[in-house]
Amino acid sequence: MANTLEDDHGRAVTGVRVSLTDRCNFDCIYCHNEGLGDTRGPMDPQDAEMGTDDVVRFLEVVSEYGVDSVKLTGGEPMLRGDLEEIIRRTPDSMEVSMTTNGTFMPGRAEQLRDAGLERVNVSQDALDPESFKEVTQSGAYEQVLEGVRAAVDAGLDPVKLNMVVFEHTAGYVEEMVDHVAENDGLQLQLIEYMPELTGRPDWNIDISRVHNWLADIADDIEHREMHDRKRYWVNGGMVEIVDPVENEGFCANCGRVRVTHEGYLKGCLNRNDDLQSMGSMSRQQIAETFESVVANRVPYYGEYLVENDDGAYEINDKYLRAATADDWQSAMPTPISAITRG
């Protein structure tokens, strides 16, 4: 096995996040589609999606670099009929987890577990059907609750409930904290809203207020070195905050790179000018591309997109110089000019 790769900032890459599709049966108003913008396509399978063999070949290659975990995402990854096969064929050295909206979990949770799925995150932004519908543009509230129960019953616990914290959901944080404390097998992951990726800065809230509130009520606080995260234990329930925006410490501990549903490697969530397609590459070419992407990761989240005097977000000049205008314009599904603060 080759040594684990480190980027130019000394961060070892030990995990990958692979988007299997941009299709989704929800239309969440905060969605940024793995940093690509709202590019979701029709619900039918698309030719541009990576095939089963493409995904497995990539995972086999990076496992030789010491990558020991993969998170399968989307869109909604459970729209892939070959999901169980992908998980089954993932190298044994890799832990496999998945982020899903949970609606397809009933009836499939045990199959996924038997294929090798170990953990699951389920997006759940409210405990009220009407509020849930407002955020997700879906009436599938009960199906999500059923999906969470199915995951717990199948032994995919602890199931992390993902909740994006912004203007529409902040009022439901307290009851979600109580919910995970009262239900065995559940944990809560509060995710900082990213206005620079969604174009709606008016929905933003100060995530430090949530940190302070949890610190006041927590029975215990645990600091995780990975991503510089804090875990708050409240009445026996675990709550974690994912807050990368303007948090250099978060990125300083990041050991993950991403793959888009079309098979493009990207070194950072909010960076799209360096996308490199694996296409029909040989294993050696994939390995070389992986090495290149890792080497060129940006130091932290807030350096790549910077705010100008007019309040708009722009790519840092030094990254524009590193790639031609044609390169990054063709890679960006959403024009930079459209990513503003109002």
Would you mind describing this structure in some detail?
The protein is α/β, with parallel strands linked by helices and 342 residues long. It has a domain at 15-252: Alpha-Beta Barrel (TIM Barrel). The protein has 13 helices and 14 strands. It has helices spanning 52-63, 83-89, 109-115, 129-136, 141-153, 173-182, 195-198, 207-217, 248-252, 283-295, 301-304, 317-322, 325-331, and strands at 15-19, 69-73, 95-100, 119-123, 159-165, 186-192, 220-224, 229-234, 237-242, 256-259, 264-266, 276-277, 305-307, 313-315. The strands form two sheets. The protein has a twelve-stranded mixed beta sheet with strand order 7-8-9-6-5-4-3-2-1-10-11-12. It has a two-stranded antiparallel ribbon with strand order 13-14. The longest helix has 13 residues, at 141-153. Residues 321-342 have low confidence and may be disordered.
How is the secondary structure organized here?
Elements: E1 15-19, H1 52-63, E2 69-73, H2 83-89, E3 95-100, H3 109-115, E4 119-123, H4 129-136, H5 141-153, E5 159-165, H6 173-182, E6 186-192, H7 195-198, H8 207-217, E7 220-224, E8 229-234, E9 237-242, H9 248-252, E10 256-259, E11 264-266, E12 276-277, H10 283-295, H11 301-304, E13 305-307, E14 313-315, H12 317-322, H13 325-331
Parallel strand pairs: 1-2, 1-10, 2-3, 3-4, 4-5, 5-6, 6-9
Antiparallel strand pairs: 7-8, 8-9, 10-11, 11-12, 13-14
Helix pairs in contact: 1-2, 1-10, 2-3
